[in-house]
UniProtKB/TrEMBL annotation:
Keywords recorded for this protein, A-Z: RNA-binding, Transcription, Transcription regulation
Stored NCBIfam families: PRK13251.1
Keyword Transcription: yes
Family listed: Belongs to the MtrB family.
Tryptophan RNA-binding attenuator protein domain residues: 5-72
The UniProt record lists the keyword Transcription regulation: yes
Entries under InterPro entries matching the protein: MtrB, Trp_RNA-bd_attenuator-like_dom, Trp_RNA-bd_attenuator_dom
Subunit structure of this chain's protein: Oligomer of 11 identical subunits arranged in doughnut-like structure.
Organism encoding this protein: Paenibacillus chungangensis
Protein name: Transcription attenuation protein MtrB
Length: 73
């Protein structure tokens, strides 16, 4: 069973076609999951034993326990 770190982020798309990409842990970082969001769609992403990083392409608002960040376009 996969353990989570309970850390998560919320991504809200400000434009069409925002990409949210999950990256693996380990020696070689690889893409393992991709989601495409339309304007105003929200995705909640959780970090797990398998997911070490999340990459966001496009104009979006990213909310974490550390604060809120808006991507530049």
């Amino acid at each position: 069973m996969e353990q989570s770190t309970n850390d998560y982020i919320v991504v809200k798309a400000k434009d069409q076609g925002v990409q949210v990409i999950g990256l693996t842990r380990g020696q070689d970082t690889k893409f393992h999951h991709t989601e495409k969001l339309d304007r105003n769609e929200v995705l909640i992403c959780q970090f797990t034993d398998h997911t070490s990083a999340i990459k966001i392409r496009g104009k979006a608002v990213v909310m974490t326990k550390y604060g809120t960040v808006e991507t530049d376009q």
